[in-house]
Amino acid sequence: MTAICTGDLMDLLHHRLATDLREQITQGVYGAGERLPGVRALARTRRVSIATVLAAYRRLEDDALIEARPRSGYYVRPRPNLAVLPPAASIPAAQPSPVTGQELVLSLVKATNVEGLVQLGAAVPDASFLPTRAVERALARAARLHRSRAATYEFPPGLPELRRQIARRMVEANCAVTADEVVITNGCQEALVLALQAVTRPGDVVVIESPTFYGLLQALEALQLEALEIPTDPVEGLSLEALQLALERWPVKACVATPSFSNPLGYCMSAARKRGLLELLGRHGVPLIEDDLYGDLGFGAQRPPPCLALAEGTGAEVIYCSSFSKTLSPGLRVGWILPGRHQARVEYLKYVLNLATPTVSQLAMAELLRGGGYERHLRAVRGGYARAVARMIEAVTRHFPPGTRVTQPAGGFVIWVELAPHVDSLELAHRARAEGISIAPGPIFSATQKYRNFVRISCACPWDGRVEAALARLAQLARGAETGNVRRFGNAVG
User: Fold this and answer.
1) At residue 3, what are phi and psi to the nearest 5 degrees?
2) What is the pLDDT of residue 268?
3) Fewer CB within 10 Å, N- or C-terminus of the chain?
4) Would you say 157 and 184 are in contact if contact means Cβ atoms under 8 Å apart?
5) Chosen domain end from 373, 400, 432
């Protein structure tokens, strides 16, 4: 008989252990959020090596069944609630329209600075989800080691060390990028504005998802561009069929989309659908402005490929935009754009707009990215966001009336809630604000102020009794927030 080598035996043992644990999780022996046995304890119980247990746990991590929490152990990941129905795909108007009323969104974001308010509105992560101490140390180190440099402008394209770090990360995401192609911006919002300025002129038509992030709508309004909203499914994403009809009918100059964990729907387009999007835009000569702000925050084991990584051979032009605002620090305001053939114009527009991104922020961000600490933080924060989203969905479905529909995002940290048809979310936001609760009403996510009975809720808040009570009170208020009884919008969200 041929002897089984040590490596083969270990593979057999860890495969068998992983299979047993998977069955126990499926059968509910270990429920969502519960801790699995410690590595040493399980090794003793199953009479295997610690390396075998770690290999089995890694296999379950790759299958997105469990997650490792630093200095705590391994836990069962939250699973989708199959009893919760997502909202139906949107059906926006099939023609371009000017964007209006977006200046009123400022009152929503200002609410994030109001002390004592339960913050469920603006998509700004609470400090508990961010590596605040590491950011503090990086800022102190940047100021101490680079005093003279930190006090000067770092003109476009930006700090060379930071651009090199970003290029390395892009290469790891299968995007063939060099440091010379990266332009540093003040967050992703500025990157989107610069991209739009590079490829459009006032009056041009821009294709967008519906619903979409209100910051994009503000940019379109400020640049005097017309928005053409495309039906978007909460699971599959942008409707390629509707997009094709729009491209054939209207003189579209650009398409702006968030194919990986969009805000507010949280969907992630499959690689096949992303490639279909690129091929469609390539045939019509329309550039894709890819907002990949949430790309690092998927709940699965693998980061989804950005459209930029799939563009080769499709004929599509991709202008890539992202930032570290949702993963490391909103306050540092460090983002970037890969403008491709528009780089010279983007650098000029960036200079005209605000000269440069603050140098000390760039130095600190380069420090944070150096040495692998960012990847460790991502592993922890992805699990934190997944738990926060699952917890919020469970609470919403428990407190709100039957028939309430909620998205189950594949990443990010916001959920999109469809209330009963008679509920007016502007009125609901007004009443909630009066009681110390901030939410984002649906109409601000549409150029034509659709989604009257929808709200977006941010889950990136520390969970406590106040949040639970706020959701219960929102459910009560929703029963009285009827259409046609709307107060002034500025009060509603401010």
Assistant:
1) -70, 145
2) 96
3) N
4) yes
5) 373
Q: Which helix (H) or strand (E) holds 13?
A: helix 6-26
Q: What is the largest CA-CA distance in the chain?
A: 83
Phi/psi-derived region of residue 303, left when phi > 0, alpha when psi is between -120 and 50, beta in every other case: beta
pLDDT score of 371: 76
Domain count, the chain: 3
In which domain, by residue range, is 185 found? 130-373
Same domain for 44 and 10?
yes
352 and 390 housed in the same domain: no
The residues of the chain scoring below 70 in pLDDT are 1-11, 27, 63-64, 79-83, 101-104, 108, 111-112, 481-494
Residue 178 — φ and ψ, nearest 5°? -110, 160
Residue 84 lies in a domain: no
In this structure, are 220 and 101 located in the same domain? no
Contact 262/295 with Cβ under 8 angstroms? no
Of 52, 60, 54, 47, nearest to 21 by C-alpha is 60
Measured distance between the N- and C-terminal CA atoms of the chain, rounded to whole angstroms:
77
Residue 86 falls inside a structural domain: no
Is residue 92 domain-resident?
Answer: no
Same structural domain for residues 255 and 213?
yes
What is the Cα–Cα distance from 425 to 110, expressed in whole angstroms?
19
CATH number of 381's domain: 3.90.1150.10
The pLDDT value recorded for residue 2 is 45
On whether the CB atoms of residues 454 and 417 are closer than 8 A, the answer is yes
Same domain as 168, residue 117? no
Crossing angle (nearest 10°) for helices 359-369 and 373-399? 100
Alpha-carbon dihedral angle through residues 124, 128, 130, 134, given to the nearest 10 degrees? 140
Q: Would you give the distance in Å from CA 248 to the centre of its chain?
A: 30
Q: Which run of H or E residues covers position 171?
A: helix 160-172
Provide the pLDDT for residue 81.
Answer: 63
* pTM for the predicted model, two decimal places: 0.84
